[in-house]
Amino acid sequence: MIARDRISKLTANLVLLAIGILFVLPLLWVLFASINRTAGLRVEFPTEPTLGNFKAVLNTDTTYRPVFNGIVLCGGSALLTMVCAVLAAYPLSRFKSKFNRPFLLTVLFCTGLPITAVMVPVYGLFVQLNLVDTIGGTIMFMATSSLPFAIWLTKTFMDGVPISLEEAAWVDGAGNMQALRRIVLPLMWPGIAVVLIFTFIGMWGNFFVPFMLLLSPERLPASVSIFTFFGQYGEPNYGQLAAYSLIYTFPVLMLYLLLSRKLGGAFALGGAIKG
Amino acid sequence: MTSSASAVPAPSSREAGRGGRPRAAKLVRMTPLTPAIALMLVFLAGPIIYCLYAAFTNMALTGTGANEVKFVGLENFRKAFGSGAFTNAIWLTLVFTLISAIIGQNTLGLGLALLMRRSTKIVRNFVGTAVIGAWVLPEVVAAYLLSAFFNEEGTLNVMLHKVGLPGQDWLYAAPIIAVSLANIWRGTAFSMLVYSAALSEVPKEIEESAEMDGAAGIRRLLFVTLPMISRAVMTNLMLITLQTLSVFGLIYAMTRGGPGTKSQTLPLYMYEQAFSFSQIGYGTAIALVMLAIGAVFSLIYLRGLNSEAA
Protein backbone atom coordinates (compact mmCIF):
# COMPACT_ATOMS: atom_id res chain seq x y z
CA MET A 1 0.00 0.00 0.00
CA ILE A 2 2.69 2.48 0.99
CA ALA A 3 4.85 1.57 -1.99
CA ARG A 4 1.88 2.13 -4.27
CA ASP A 5 1.21 5.48 -2.67
CA ARG A 6 4.78 6.50 -3.29
CA ILE A 7 4.61 5.47 -6.93
CA SER A 8 1.38 7.32 -7.49
CA LYS A 9 2.86 10.40 -5.86
CA LEU A 10 5.93 10.19 -8.06
CA THR A 11 3.85 9.81 -11.21
CA ALA A 12 1.68 12.75 -10.19
CA ASN A 13 4.77 14.88 -9.67
CA LEU A 14 6.34 13.90 -12.98
CA VAL A 15 3.18 14.50 -15.01
CA LEU A 16 2.65 17.84 -13.28
CA LEU A 17 6.24 18.87 -13.94
CA ALA A 18 5.89 18.04 -17.64
CA ILE A 19 2.70 20.14 -17.92
CA GLY A 20 4.31 22.91 -15.91
CA ILE A 21 7.28 23.04 -18.28
CA LEU A 22 4.95 23.35 -21.27
CA PHE A 23 3.28 26.28 -19.57
CA VAL A 24 6.59 27.89 -18.66
CA LEU A 25 8.28 27.71 -22.08
CA PRO A 26 6.37 30.59 -23.70
CA LEU A 27 6.89 32.62 -20.54
CA LEU A 28 10.62 31.95 -20.62
CA TRP A 29 10.74 33.30 -24.15
CA VAL A 30 9.51 36.71 -23.11
CA LEU A 31 11.96 36.87 -20.20
CA PHE A 32 15.01 35.92 -22.26
CA ALA A 33 14.08 37.83 -25.39
CA SER A 34 13.60 41.05 -23.44
CA ILE A 35 17.28 41.12 -22.48
CA ASN A 36 18.53 39.94 -25.86
CA ARG A 37 19.59 42.50 -28.46
CA THR A 38 19.15 40.05 -31.33
CA ALA A 39 16.16 38.14 -30.02
CA GLY A 40 14.51 35.63 -32.32
CA LEU A 41 11.43 33.52 -31.82
CA ARG A 42 12.89 30.60 -29.90
CA VAL A 43 13.71 30.33 -26.24
CA GLU A 44 17.42 30.98 -25.82
CA PHE A 45 19.42 32.67 -23.15
CA PRO A 46 21.21 35.70 -24.66
CA THR A 47 24.99 35.53 -24.95
CA GLU A 48 25.27 39.16 -23.90
CA PRO A 49 22.34 40.14 -21.69
CA THR A 50 21.43 43.79 -22.09
CA LEU A 51 18.85 46.26 -20.90
CA GLY A 52 18.91 47.99 -24.29
CA ASN A 53 15.47 46.79 -25.26
CA PHE A 54 13.92 48.34 -22.18
CA LYS A 55 15.76 51.62 -22.80
CA ALA A 56 14.52 51.62 -26.40
CA VAL A 57 10.85 51.32 -25.49
CA LEU A 58 10.85 53.53 -22.38
CA ASN A 59 9.70 56.73 -24.04
CA THR A 60 6.51 58.75 -24.06
CA ASP A 61 5.00 57.44 -27.26
CA THR A 62 5.69 53.76 -26.77
CA THR A 63 5.35 53.26 -23.04
CA TYR A 64 4.57 56.16 -20.73
CA ARG A 65 1.49 57.54 -22.46
CA PRO A 66 -0.22 54.19 -23.24
CA VAL A 67 0.42 52.97 -19.70
CA PHE A 68 -0.89 56.24 -18.29
CA ASN A 69 -3.95 56.02 -20.54
CA GLY A 70 -4.49 52.44 -19.40
CA ILE A 71 -4.34 53.50 -15.76
CA VAL A 72 -6.85 56.32 -16.33
CA LEU A 73 -9.15 54.13 -18.39
CA CYS A 74 -9.04 50.94 -16.31
CA GLY A 75 -8.68 52.71 -12.96
CA GLY A 76 -11.60 55.00 -13.75
CA SER A 77 -13.77 52.14 -14.97
CA ALA A 78 -12.89 49.88 -12.05
CA LEU A 79 -13.70 52.64 -9.55
CA LEU A 80 -16.99 53.44 -11.27
CA THR A 81 -17.85 49.74 -11.32
CA MET A 82 -17.01 49.42 -7.65
CA VAL A 83 -19.05 52.45 -6.54
CA CYS A 84 -22.11 51.30 -8.50
CA ALA A 85 -21.68 47.71 -7.35
CA VAL A 86 -21.40 48.61 -3.67
CA LEU A 87 -24.42 50.91 -3.86
CA ALA A 88 -26.44 48.27 -5.67
CA ALA A 89 -25.32 45.43 -3.43
CA TYR A 90 -26.40 47.18 -0.24
CA PRO A 91 -30.19 47.09 -0.69
CA LEU A 92 -29.91 43.71 -2.39
CA SER A 93 -28.07 42.27 0.58
CA ARG A 94 -29.90 44.10 3.38
CA PHE A 95 -33.55 44.49 2.44
CA LYS A 96 -36.02 41.87 1.52
CA SER A 97 -37.95 42.78 -1.58
CA LYS A 98 -39.85 41.04 -4.31
CA PHE A 99 -37.61 42.82 -6.70
CA ASN A 100 -34.33 41.26 -5.47
CA ARG A 101 -34.58 37.82 -6.92
CA PRO A 102 -35.52 38.76 -10.49
CA PHE A 103 -32.91 41.50 -10.42
CA LEU A 104 -30.12 39.19 -9.27
CA LEU A 105 -31.12 36.56 -11.77
CA THR A 106 -31.00 39.19 -14.53
CA VAL A 107 -27.58 40.28 -13.32
CA LEU A 108 -26.37 36.71 -13.35
CA PHE A 109 -27.83 36.21 -16.80
CA CYS A 110 -25.94 39.30 -18.01
CA THR A 111 -22.62 37.94 -16.76
CA GLY A 112 -23.06 35.23 -19.37
CA LEU A 113 -23.74 37.47 -22.35
CA PRO A 114 -20.81 37.74 -24.72
CA ILE A 115 -19.69 41.36 -24.57
CA THR A 116 -17.94 40.84 -27.90
CA ALA A 117 -21.34 40.45 -29.56
CA VAL A 118 -22.64 43.74 -28.21
CA MET A 119 -19.70 45.70 -29.60
CA VAL A 120 -21.21 46.38 -33.02
CA PRO A 121 -24.41 47.94 -31.63
CA VAL A 122 -22.39 49.67 -28.90
CA TYR A 123 -20.34 51.29 -31.61
CA GLY A 124 -23.59 52.36 -33.27
CA LEU A 125 -24.83 53.77 -29.96
CA PHE A 126 -21.55 55.63 -29.46
CA VAL A 127 -21.87 57.20 -32.90
CA GLN A 128 -25.41 58.36 -32.06
CA LEU A 129 -24.37 59.79 -28.70
CA ASN A 130 -21.16 61.28 -30.08
CA LEU A 131 -19.08 59.25 -27.65
CA VAL A 132 -16.70 57.55 -30.08
CA ASP A 133 -13.08 58.26 -29.21
CA THR A 134 -13.89 59.74 -25.80
CA ILE A 135 -12.27 58.46 -22.62
CA GLY A 136 -15.43 59.15 -20.60
CA GLY A 137 -17.68 57.12 -22.85
CA THR A 138 -15.25 54.23 -22.95
CA ILE A 139 -14.96 54.28 -19.16
CA MET A 140 -18.74 54.12 -18.81
CA PHE A 141 -19.04 51.21 -21.18
CA MET A 142 -16.16 49.27 -19.64
CA ALA A 143 -17.62 49.84 -16.18
CA THR A 144 -21.02 48.59 -17.34
CA SER A 145 -19.61 45.49 -18.94
CA SER A 146 -18.01 44.34 -15.69
CA LEU A 147 -20.84 45.56 -13.49
CA PRO A 148 -23.02 42.41 -13.44
CA PHE A 149 -20.19 40.23 -12.16
CA ALA A 150 -19.06 42.91 -9.70
CA ILE A 151 -22.57 43.37 -8.26
CA TRP A 152 -22.98 39.68 -7.76
CA LEU A 153 -19.57 39.23 -6.15
CA THR A 154 -19.94 42.30 -3.93
CA LYS A 155 -23.34 41.15 -2.74
CA THR A 156 -21.86 37.77 -1.86
CA PHE A 157 -19.16 39.45 0.22
CA MET A 158 -21.66 41.81 1.82
CA ASP A 159 -23.89 38.94 2.87
CA GLY A 160 -20.96 37.81 4.99
CA VAL A 161 -21.07 40.97 7.14
CA PRO A 162 -23.38 40.39 10.11
CA ILE A 163 -26.33 42.68 10.26
CA SER A 164 -26.47 43.12 14.04
CA LEU A 165 -23.88 45.93 14.07
CA GLU A 166 -25.90 47.97 11.64
CA GLU A 167 -29.03 47.47 13.65
CA ALA A 168 -27.30 49.07 16.57
CA ALA A 169 -26.33 51.98 14.36
CA TRP A 170 -29.89 52.36 13.11
CA VAL A 171 -31.13 52.54 16.64
CA ASP A 172 -28.66 55.38 17.14
CA GLY A 173 -30.30 57.15 14.21
CA ALA A 174 -27.77 56.49 11.45
CA GLY A 175 -29.11 56.37 7.90
CA ASN A 176 -28.55 53.52 5.49
CA MET A 177 -25.76 55.21 3.60
CA GLN A 178 -24.04 56.14 6.84
CA ALA A 179 -24.28 52.56 8.04
CA LEU A 180 -22.88 51.40 4.73
CA ARG A 181 -19.92 53.76 4.87
CA ARG A 182 -19.11 53.56 8.56
CA ILE A 183 -19.86 49.94 9.33
CA VAL A 184 -20.28 47.66 6.35
CA LEU A 185 -17.47 48.91 4.11
CA PRO A 186 -14.74 48.84 6.78
CA LEU A 187 -15.74 45.29 7.62
CA MET A 188 -15.67 44.05 4.05
CA TRP A 189 -12.64 45.85 2.65
CA PRO A 190 -10.88 42.61 1.69
CA GLY A 191 -13.90 41.74 -0.44
CA ILE A 192 -13.91 45.21 -1.97
CA ALA A 193 -10.21 44.91 -2.74
CA VAL A 194 -10.73 41.53 -4.41
CA VAL A 195 -13.52 42.82 -6.64
CA LEU A 196 -11.66 46.04 -7.45
CA ILE A 197 -8.37 44.36 -8.31
CA PHE A 198 -10.03 41.60 -10.23
CA THR A 199 -12.05 44.07 -12.26
CA PHE A 200 -8.95 46.14 -12.95
CA ILE A 201 -6.93 43.12 -14.09
CA GLY A 202 -9.69 42.11 -16.47
CA MET A 203 -9.86 45.59 -17.95
CA TRP A 204 -6.11 46.03 -18.22
CA GLY A 205 -5.93 43.04 -20.52
CA ASN A 206 -9.06 43.91 -22.48
CA PHE A 207 -8.20 44.59 -26.09
CA PHE A 208 -11.44 44.63 -28.04
CA VAL A 209 -13.38 47.35 -26.21
CA PRO A 210 -10.79 50.16 -26.37
CA PHE A 211 -9.76 48.93 -29.83
CA MET A 212 -13.28 49.59 -31.07
CA LEU A 213 -14.26 52.67 -29.10
CA LEU A 214 -11.04 54.72 -29.15
CA LEU A 215 -9.40 55.94 -32.33
CA SER A 216 -6.76 58.60 -31.67
CA PRO A 217 -3.32 57.11 -31.06
CA GLU A 218 -2.76 59.48 -28.14
CA ARG A 219 -5.78 58.09 -26.28
CA LEU A 220 -5.03 54.39 -26.73
CA PRO A 221 -4.23 52.32 -23.65
CA ALA A 222 -1.34 49.87 -23.54
CA SER A 223 -3.53 46.89 -24.45
CA VAL A 224 -4.20 48.37 -27.88
CA SER A 225 -0.97 50.24 -28.50
CA ILE A 226 1.08 47.07 -28.08
CA PHE A 227 -0.88 45.75 -31.02
CA THR A 228 -0.63 48.85 -33.18
CA PHE A 229 3.09 49.32 -32.53
CA PHE A 230 4.25 45.79 -32.98
CA GLY A 231 1.49 43.93 -34.74
CA GLN A 232 0.89 45.85 -37.89
CA TYR A 233 4.03 46.24 -39.91
CA GLY A 234 6.16 43.34 -41.04
CA GLU A 235 8.82 41.81 -38.83
CA PRO A 236 8.80 43.43 -35.40
CA ASN A 237 11.81 43.88 -33.17
CA TYR A 238 11.23 40.88 -30.92
CA GLY A 239 13.50 42.02 -28.13
CA GLN A 240 11.68 45.33 -27.81
CA LEU A 241 8.31 43.62 -28.10
CA ALA A 242 9.25 41.30 -25.26
CA ALA A 243 10.54 44.16 -23.11
CA TYR A 244 7.38 46.14 -23.72
CA SER A 245 5.20 43.11 -22.96
CA LEU A 246 6.93 42.77 -19.60
CA ILE A 247 6.47 46.44 -18.74
CA TYR A 248 2.83 46.25 -19.73
CA THR A 249 2.25 43.06 -17.75
CA PHE A 250 4.08 44.23 -14.62
CA PRO A 251 1.21 46.18 -12.96
CA VAL A 252 -1.32 43.33 -13.19
CA LEU A 253 1.28 40.84 -12.04
CA MET A 254 1.92 42.91 -8.93
CA LEU A 255 -1.80 43.34 -8.28
CA TYR A 256 -2.34 39.65 -8.70
CA LEU A 257 0.43 38.82 -6.24
CA LEU A 258 -1.10 41.25 -3.77
CA LEU A 259 -4.46 39.59 -4.28
CA SER A 260 -3.23 36.06 -3.76
CA ARG A 261 -0.81 36.77 -0.91
CA LYS A 262 -2.93 39.05 1.21
CA LEU A 263 -6.39 37.89 0.40
CA GLY A 264 -6.32 34.36 -0.87
CA GLY A 265 -7.33 35.97 -4.16
CA ALA A 266 -8.08 33.62 -6.97
CA PHE A 267 -8.65 30.71 -4.67
CA ALA A 268 -11.35 32.59 -2.85
CA LEU A 269 -12.71 33.66 -6.20
CA GLY A 270 -12.68 30.10 -7.44
CA GLY A 271 -14.73 29.26 -4.39
CA ALA A 272 -17.20 32.01 -5.11
CA ILE A 273 -17.62 31.00 -8.72
CA LYS A 274 -17.89 27.32 -8.01
CA GLY A 275 -21.57 27.99 -7.27
CA MET B 1 -17.41 33.24 1.32
CA THR B 2 -16.66 29.82 0.02
CA SER B 3 -19.48 27.39 -0.22
CA SER B 4 -22.17 29.75 0.96
CA ALA B 5 -21.65 31.75 -2.21
CA SER B 6 -24.68 30.37 -3.92
CA ALA B 7 -25.68 32.20 -7.02
CA VAL B 8 -29.24 32.59 -6.06
CA PRO B 9 -30.04 35.37 -3.62
CA ALA B 10 -30.29 33.94 -0.19
CA PRO B 11 -33.24 35.68 1.39
CA SER B 12 -31.31 38.23 3.40
CA SER B 13 -33.65 38.56 6.27
CA ARG B 14 -34.04 41.89 7.85
CA GLU B 15 -37.49 43.16 7.68
CA ALA B 16 -37.73 42.95 11.42
CA GLY B 17 -35.96 46.11 12.55
CA ARG B 18 -38.03 48.53 10.58
CA GLY B 19 -40.97 46.47 9.51
CA GLY B 20 -44.27 47.79 8.29
CA ARG B 21 -42.91 50.72 6.33
CA PRO B 22 -45.07 52.29 3.63
CA ARG B 23 -44.35 51.74 -0.04
CA ALA B 24 -42.56 55.05 -0.52
CA ALA B 25 -40.00 54.17 2.10
CA LYS B 26 -39.39 50.84 0.40
CA LEU B 27 -38.72 52.64 -2.86
CA VAL B 28 -36.33 55.03 -1.16
CA ARG B 29 -34.35 52.12 0.21
CA MET B 30 -33.91 50.83 -3.31
CA THR B 31 -32.54 54.11 -4.68
CA PRO B 32 -28.86 53.07 -4.34
CA LEU B 33 -29.55 50.69 -7.19
CA THR B 34 -30.19 53.59 -9.57
CA PRO B 35 -26.66 54.21 -10.92
CA ALA B 36 -26.11 50.53 -11.67
CA ILE B 37 -29.49 50.17 -13.32
CA ALA B 38 -29.04 53.35 -15.35
CA LEU B 39 -25.64 52.23 -16.65
CA MET B 40 -26.89 48.76 -17.52
CA LEU B 41 -29.99 50.11 -19.25
CA VAL B 42 -28.04 52.53 -21.42
CA PHE B 43 -24.93 50.51 -22.20
CA LEU B 44 -26.15 46.92 -22.05
CA ALA B 45 -29.90 46.74 -22.59
CA GLY B 46 -29.75 49.63 -25.06
CA PRO B 47 -27.29 47.93 -27.44
CA ILE B 48 -29.16 44.64 -27.21
CA ILE B 49 -32.45 46.28 -28.14
CA TYR B 50 -30.67 48.18 -30.87
CA CYS B 51 -29.36 44.82 -32.07
CA LEU B 52 -32.90 43.53 -32.32
CA TYR B 53 -33.77 46.47 -34.56
CA ALA B 54 -30.65 46.84 -36.71
CA ALA B 55 -30.36 43.15 -37.48
CA PHE B 56 -33.51 43.44 -39.59
CA THR B 57 -32.34 46.46 -41.60
CA ASN B 58 -29.84 47.07 -44.38
CA MET B 59 -27.94 49.61 -42.26
CA ALA B 60 -24.42 50.27 -43.58
CA LEU B 61 -21.66 52.82 -43.23
CA THR B 62 -21.28 53.17 -47.00
CA GLY B 63 -23.44 52.44 -50.04
CA THR B 64 -27.23 52.36 -50.19
CA GLY B 65 -27.79 51.39 -46.59
CA ALA B 66 -25.90 54.47 -45.46
CA ASN B 67 -28.32 56.99 -46.99
CA GLU B 68 -31.58 55.34 -46.27
CA VAL B 69 -32.01 52.60 -43.70
CA LYS B 70 -34.64 50.15 -44.84
CA PHE B 71 -36.36 47.32 -43.03
CA VAL B 72 -35.40 44.11 -44.80
CA GLY B 73 -37.05 41.46 -42.65
CA LEU B 74 -35.12 38.24 -42.36
CA GLU B 75 -32.90 39.06 -45.33
CA ASN B 76 -29.71 39.33 -43.22
CA PHE B 77 -30.27 35.96 -41.64
CA ARG B 78 -31.11 34.39 -44.98
CA LYS B 79 -27.90 35.85 -46.36
CA ALA B 80 -25.90 34.61 -43.36
CA PHE B 81 -27.11 31.05 -43.34
CA GLY B 82 -26.71 30.87 -47.11
CA SER B 83 -23.13 32.16 -47.04
CA GLY B 84 -20.15 29.86 -46.93
CA ALA B 85 -18.12 32.31 -44.86
CA PHE B 86 -20.76 32.38 -42.12
CA THR B 87 -21.15 28.61 -41.89
CA ASN B 88 -17.37 28.38 -41.92
CA ALA B 89 -17.26 30.79 -38.96
CA ILE B 90 -19.92 28.85 -37.06
CA TRP B 91 -18.04 25.63 -37.70
CA LEU B 92 -14.72 27.09 -36.58
CA THR B 93 -16.33 28.56 -33.47
CA LEU B 94 -17.67 25.13 -32.57
CA VAL B 95 -14.28 23.50 -33.14
CA PHE B 96 -12.55 26.23 -31.17
CA THR B 97 -14.98 25.97 -28.25
CA LEU B 98 -14.94 22.20 -28.23
CA ILE B 99 -11.17 21.79 -28.41
CA SER B 100 -10.07 24.66 -26.26
CA ALA B 101 -12.81 24.91 -23.63
CA ILE B 102 -14.80 21.74 -23.26
CA ILE B 103 -11.97 19.30 -23.91
CA GLY B 104 -8.84 21.30 -23.27
CA GLN B 105 -9.32 23.72 -20.38
CA ASN B 106 -11.90 21.60 -18.63
CA THR B 107 -10.06 18.28 -18.72
CA LEU B 108 -6.63 19.75 -18.17
CA GLY B 109 -7.93 21.91 -15.33
CA LEU B 110 -9.55 18.91 -13.65
CA GLY B 111 -6.44 16.80 -14.26
CA LEU B 112 -4.18 19.44 -12.75
CA ALA B 113 -6.44 19.86 -9.75
CA LEU B 114 -6.52 16.09 -9.16
CA LEU B 115 -2.79 15.62 -9.61
CA MET B 116 -2.04 18.55 -7.34
CA ARG B 117 -3.70 16.78 -4.44
CA ARG B 118 -1.10 14.02 -4.56
CA SER B 119 1.97 16.02 -5.46
CA THR B 120 4.72 17.51 -3.37
CA LYS B 121 4.29 21.10 -2.31
CA ILE B 122 7.17 22.49 -4.33
CA VAL B 123 5.96 20.91 -7.58
CA ARG B 124 2.44 22.06 -6.85
CA ASN B 125 3.57 25.63 -6.31
CA PHE B 126 5.71 25.66 -9.44
CA VAL B 127 2.95 24.36 -11.68
CA GLY B 128 0.29 26.51 -10.07
CA THR B 129 2.39 29.63 -10.58
CA ALA B 130 3.12 28.78 -14.22
CA VAL B 131 -0.51 28.07 -15.07
CA ILE B 132 -1.84 31.12 -13.25
CA GLY B 133 0.95 33.23 -14.75
CA ALA B 134 -0.33 32.38 -18.21
CA TRP B 135 -3.81 33.38 -17.10
CA VAL B 136 -2.85 36.75 -15.64
CA LEU B 137 -1.05 37.89 -18.79
CA PRO B 138 -2.98 40.40 -20.89
CA GLU B 139 -4.67 38.91 -23.92
CA VAL B 140 -2.46 40.47 -26.57
CA VAL B 141 0.75 39.59 -24.74
CA ALA B 142 -0.38 35.98 -24.51
CA ALA B 143 -1.13 36.09 -28.23
CA TYR B 144 2.40 37.30 -29.03
CA LEU B 145 4.07 34.74 -26.78
CA LEU B 146 2.18 31.91 -28.41
CA SER B 147 2.68 33.24 -31.92
CA ALA B 148 6.39 33.05 -31.20
CA PHE B 149 6.00 29.58 -29.73
CA PHE B 150 4.13 28.21 -32.77
CA ASN B 151 6.18 30.06 -35.39
CA GLU B 152 8.30 28.21 -37.92
CA GLU B 153 11.42 29.27 -36.03
CA GLY B 154 9.73 29.02 -32.67
CA THR B 155 10.32 26.88 -29.62
CA LEU B 156 7.79 24.19 -30.50
CA ASN B 157 9.62 23.34 -33.72
CA VAL B 158 12.99 23.38 -31.96
CA MET B 159 11.63 20.75 -29.59
CA LEU B 160 10.09 18.74 -32.43
CA HIS B 161 13.38 18.77 -34.36
CA LYS B 162 15.19 17.52 -31.28
CA VAL B 163 13.08 14.38 -31.24
CA GLY B 164 13.38 13.98 -35.01
CA LEU B 165 9.94 15.22 -36.05
CA PRO B 166 9.43 17.68 -38.90
CA GLY B 167 8.40 21.19 -37.96
CA GLN B 168 6.21 23.66 -39.76
CA ASP B 169 4.65 27.05 -39.30
CA TRP B 170 1.73 25.97 -37.16
CA LEU B 171 -0.11 29.24 -37.59
CA TYR B 172 -0.27 28.54 -41.33
CA ALA B 173 -0.60 24.78 -41.32
CA ALA B 174 -3.21 24.38 -38.59
CA PRO B 175 -4.29 27.84 -37.44
CA ILE B 176 -7.46 26.81 -35.62
CA ILE B 177 -5.54 24.15 -33.69
CA ALA B 178 -2.82 26.65 -32.83
CA VAL B 179 -5.27 29.26 -31.51
CA SER B 180 -7.17 26.56 -29.63
CA LEU B 181 -3.98 25.41 -27.93
CA ALA B 182 -3.20 29.05 -27.20
CA ASN B 183 -6.58 29.42 -25.53
CA ILE B 184 -5.97 26.29 -23.48
CA TRP B 185 -2.64 27.71 -22.37
CA ARG B 186 -4.24 30.98 -21.42
CA GLY B 187 -7.48 29.77 -19.86
CA THR B 188 -6.78 26.52 -18.01
CA ALA B 189 -6.02 28.30 -14.75
CA PHE B 190 -9.66 29.20 -14.31
CA SER B 191 -10.85 25.60 -14.46
CA MET B 192 -7.94 24.52 -12.28
CA LEU B 193 -8.94 27.01 -9.58
CA VAL B 194 -12.61 26.09 -9.74
CA TYR B 195 -11.82 22.38 -9.47
CA SER B 196 -9.22 22.82 -6.75
CA ALA B 197 -11.77 24.68 -4.68
CA ALA B 198 -14.42 22.03 -5.35
CA LEU B 199 -12.12 19.08 -4.61
CA SER B 200 -10.95 20.64 -1.36
CA GLU B 201 -14.47 20.14 -0.08
CA VAL B 202 -14.72 16.47 -0.97
CA PRO B 203 -14.18 14.62 2.31
CA LYS B 204 -11.07 12.45 2.19
CA GLU B 205 -12.86 9.65 4.09
CA ILE B 206 -15.33 9.08 1.29
CA GLU B 207 -12.59 8.61 -1.26
CA GLU B 208 -10.62 6.39 1.11
CA SER B 209 -13.56 4.17 1.89
CA ALA B 210 -14.29 3.90 -1.82
CA GLU B 211 -10.71 2.74 -2.27
CA MET B 212 -11.18 0.16 0.47
CA ASP B 213 -14.18 -1.15 -1.43
CA GLY B 214 -11.95 -1.65 -4.42
CA ALA B 215 -12.82 1.40 -6.48
CA ALA B 216 -9.48 2.74 -7.61
CA GLY B 217 -8.14 4.98 -10.33
CA ILE B 218 -10.51 5.87 -13.14
CA ARG B 219 -13.45 4.08 -11.57
CA ARG B 220 -13.16 5.99 -8.35
CA LEU B 221 -12.89 9.22 -10.31
CA LEU B 222 -15.97 8.45 -12.41
CA PHE B 223 -18.24 7.01 -9.76
CA VAL B 224 -17.15 8.67 -6.55
CA THR B 225 -15.25 11.91 -7.05
CA LEU B 226 -16.92 13.38 -10.14
CA PRO B 227 -20.51 12.97 -8.90
CA MET B 228 -19.52 14.83 -5.75
CA ILE B 229 -18.29 17.84 -7.68
CA SER B 230 -20.89 17.67 -10.45
CA ARG B 231 -22.11 21.18 -9.66
CA ALA B 232 -18.65 22.61 -10.09
CA VAL B 233 -18.31 20.73 -13.38
CA MET B 234 -21.58 22.20 -14.70
CA THR B 235 -20.73 25.72 -13.59
CA ASN B 236 -17.24 25.52 -14.96
CA LEU B 237 -18.33 24.15 -18.33
CA MET B 238 -20.92 26.88 -18.77
CA LEU B 239 -18.61 29.69 -17.78
CA ILE B 240 -15.67 28.65 -19.92
CA THR B 241 -17.94 27.96 -22.89
CA LEU B 242 -19.35 31.46 -22.62
CA GLN B 243 -15.89 32.95 -22.28
CA THR B 244 -14.54 31.00 -25.22
CA LEU B 245 -17.42 31.87 -27.53
CA SER B 246 -16.49 35.52 -27.31
CA VAL B 247 -12.70 35.31 -27.57
CA PHE B 248 -11.58 37.99 -30.01
CA GLY B 249 -8.25 39.60 -29.11
CA LEU B 250 -6.27 36.37 -28.79
CA ILE B 251 -7.22 35.11 -32.25
CA TYR B 252 -7.10 38.52 -33.86
CA ALA B 253 -3.59 39.24 -32.61
CA MET B 254 -2.34 35.75 -33.50
CA THR B 255 -3.76 35.17 -36.99
CA ARG B 256 -6.28 37.94 -37.88
CA GLY B 257 -8.58 35.06 -38.68
CA GLY B 258 -6.27 33.86 -41.41
CA PRO B 259 -4.66 32.52 -43.42
CA GLY B 260 -7.69 33.22 -45.58
CA THR B 261 -10.58 32.51 -43.25
CA LYS B 262 -9.08 29.40 -41.66
CA SER B 263 -9.32 30.69 -38.12
CA GLN B 264 -12.11 33.20 -38.54
CA THR B 265 -14.48 32.44 -35.68
CA LEU B 266 -17.82 34.24 -35.29
CA PRO B 267 -16.56 37.29 -33.41
CA LEU B 268 -13.89 37.89 -36.06
CA TYR B 269 -16.35 37.36 -38.88
CA MET B 270 -18.76 39.80 -37.26
CA TYR B 271 -16.02 42.37 -36.86
CA GLU B 272 -14.93 42.01 -40.48
CA GLN B 273 -18.46 42.31 -41.87
CA ALA B 274 -19.46 45.23 -39.68
CA PHE B 275 -16.29 47.30 -39.87
CA SER B 276 -14.06 46.24 -42.71
CA PHE B 277 -17.03 45.86 -45.06
CA SER B 278 -19.23 48.44 -43.29
CA GLN B 279 -22.31 46.18 -43.29
CA ILE B 280 -23.67 47.22 -39.90
CA GLY B 281 -27.08 45.62 -40.40
CA TYR B 282 -25.57 42.31 -41.42
CA GLY B 283 -22.95 42.54 -38.66
CA THR B 284 -25.65 43.08 -36.03
CA ALA B 285 -27.55 40.08 -37.35
CA ILE B 286 -24.45 38.00 -36.65
CA ALA B 287 -24.10 39.67 -33.26
CA LEU B 288 -27.69 38.66 -32.56
CA VAL B 289 -26.88 35.05 -33.41
CA MET B 290 -23.96 35.18 -30.97
CA LEU B 291 -26.10 36.79 -28.30
CA ALA B 292 -28.71 34.10 -28.79
CA ILE B 293 -26.10 31.35 -28.39
CA GLY B 294 -24.77 33.08 -25.27
CA ALA B 295 -28.28 33.56 -23.89
CA VAL B 296 -29.13 29.89 -24.33
CA PHE B 297 -25.99 28.81 -22.48
CA SER B 298 -26.61 31.44 -19.83
CA LEU B 299 -30.15 30.18 -19.29
CA ILE B 300 -29.03 26.57 -18.98
CA TYR B 301 -26.47 27.75 -16.46
CA LEU B 302 -29.11 29.64 -14.45
CA ARG B 303 -31.43 26.67 -14.50
CA GLY B 304 -28.67 24.41 -13.27
CA LEU B 305 -27.91 26.73 -10.37
CA ASN B 306 -31.58 27.23 -9.61
CA SER B 307 -32.54 23.59 -9.49
CA GLU B 308 -29.60 22.91 -7.19
CA ALA B 309 -30.67 25.65 -4.84
CA ALA B 310 -34.29 24.58 -4.72
TrEMBL record, chain A:
Family annotation (Gene3D superfamilies): MetI-like
Topology in the lipid bilayer? Multi-pass membrane protein
Q: Show the stretches that span the lipid bilayer.
A: 12-35, 67-90, 102-123, 135-154, 187-209, 241-259
Q: What is its main location?
A: membrane
Keywords, A to Z, come to:
Cell membrane, Membrane, Transmembrane, Transmembrane helix, Transport
Any one Gene Ontology cellular component term annotated for this protein: plasma membrane
- State the family it belongs to: Belongs to the binding-protein-dependent transport system permease family.
Mind telling me what this protein is named? Carbohydrate ABC transporter membrane protein 2 (CUT1 family)
Name the source organism.
Answer: Kribbella amoyensis
